């Protein structure tokens, strides 16, 4: 639960995917949570990894429906970069990533999550908004608060 | 003295602002830029404006493990 106003919070890829897809059951909760946080003057941070992962999922979904269109992807990227603050990777991120891998004995795909954690730690961001809270649970001891969605009211 | 009075939007990666000084005679000038941060015109993002009508099965969830289902290769 978010208690401090005006903080920077990192937005995970799944939040963008559900925000963009009105038909999904998580859409209303994502929209509600971001709106609440915006009212509390939170600053929404992402990095290039989030945009890349969004494009992976969105292009696949468009392709599955035989609606692949690069202009749709271009419009998506425009909205994302206009609405969220895109920070570049800090120069020290790989050193922190290796430290996390070593400390928690990380292997395989979880290193993609670790890269996000390393990005946040080296950028001074200590909150991550995600639908998959368990993905980042291992990094809780690093001082990263994993923020879950706030449930929208039935009539929203 | 030239006064430039305009509204600018700083958003996402779009953080550069251009001014057309075409009418200013050649020369070296001292330029002072003051931005009134206490008078933001609007900073609200309309998240509901970004939506697609794709049908995603309700049971489908997206985790990074699925996005990198092939170990990222």
Protein traits:
heterodimer, A: 156 residues, alpha/beta, five-stranded parallel sheet, 6 helices, globular, B: 73 residues, little secondary structure, 1 helix, 5% helix, elongated
Tell me the structural class of chain B: little secondary structure
Largest interface: A-B, 40 and 27 residues
Number of helices of chain B: 1
Distance between the terminal alpha carbons of chain A, to the nearest Å?
20 Å
**Topology as H/E string of chain A?**
EHHEHHEHHEE
Q: How many beta-strand segments of chain B?
A: 0
- Note the gap between the termini of chain B: 59 Å
Mean pLDDT of chain B: 77
Helix content of chain B: under 10%
> Largest beta sheet of chain A: what is the strand line-up?
3-2-1-4-5
Number of helices of chain A: 6
| Largest β sheet strand count, sense and barrel closure of chain B | none
* Main pleated-sheet profile of chain A: 5 strands, parallel
As a percent range, the share of strand residues of chain A is 5-15%
Shape of chain B: elongated
Radius of gyration of chain A: 16 Å
* Oligomeric state as shown: heterodimer
Structural class per helix/strand content of chain A? alpha/beta
């Amino acid at each position: 639960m978010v208690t401090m106003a005006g903080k920077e919070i990192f937005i995970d890829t799944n939040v963008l995917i559900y925000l963009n897809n009105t038909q999904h059951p998580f859409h209303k909760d994502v929209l509600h949570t971001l709106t609440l946080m915006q009212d509390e003057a939170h600053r929404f941070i992402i990095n290039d990894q989030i945009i890349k992962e969004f494009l992976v999922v969105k292009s696949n979904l468009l392709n599955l429906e035989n609606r692949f269109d690069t202009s749709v992807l271009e419009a998506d990227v425009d909205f994302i970069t206009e609405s969220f603050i895109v920070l570049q990777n800090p120069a020290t991120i790989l050193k922190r990533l290796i430290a996390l891998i070593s400390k928690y004995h990380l292997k395989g795909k979880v290193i993609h999550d670790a890269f996000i954690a390393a990005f946040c730690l080296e950028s001074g961001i200590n909150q991550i908004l995600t639908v998959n809270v368990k993905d980042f649970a291992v990094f809780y001891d690093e001082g990263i608060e994993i923020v879950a969605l706030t449930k929208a009211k039935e009539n929203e | 003295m030239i006064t430039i009075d305009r509204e600018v939007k700083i958003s996402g990666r779009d953080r550069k602002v251009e001014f057309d000084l075409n009418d200013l005679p050649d020369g070296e000038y001292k330029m002072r830029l003051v931005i009134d941060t206490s008078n933001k015109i609007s900073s609200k993002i309309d998240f509901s404006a970004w939506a697609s009508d794709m049908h995603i099965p309700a049971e489908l969830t997206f985790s990074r493990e699925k996005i990198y289902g092939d170990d990222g290769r």
